[in-house]
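Practice problem: DNA-binding protein
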Amino acid sequence: MTFAEKVKEARLAMNLSQTELSQLTGISERSLYTYEQLGTIPRSGNIKKIAEALRVSVTYLMDDGETDKTKHIEQDQFIDDVKQEFGSKGAREAKEILSRTGALLAGGELDDEAKEVFFQSLMEVYLDSKQAAREKFTPKKYRKHRSKSR
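Answer key — structure tokens:
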């Protein structure tokens, strides 16, 4: 299914009109119409708002082959948190790690619960190591400046 089809299906499954979805997301009805009816792909910020309002993952909306609506919600949140804390480069690194690790585990002997525990641990280790690197390699004068602006 395409992005447009998934948005419309998820919206209807929640018994929402385009007007109601517009109110939930802050996206104009006209824009929502173009996303659903014309297949226009929105900016990433709007994709995130739509995914959150419809309680589906961004990955589900953007990957035509993805059929599980909620499978990647935690990973999407993790990537968003990393982006907030470490910027776009950190988010790209985190996506790459999750992607490579997912490929490593594909078709393996682990059940879904064990894979989830593994991914949670991996995400925690990544955040801890990024924070440790920031503390070790960022000059103190810049660390203080960054912490004041937060």
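Discussion: Residues 20 and 61 are 19 Å apart (CA to CA). Students who identified this feature from the tokens alone can consider the problem solved.
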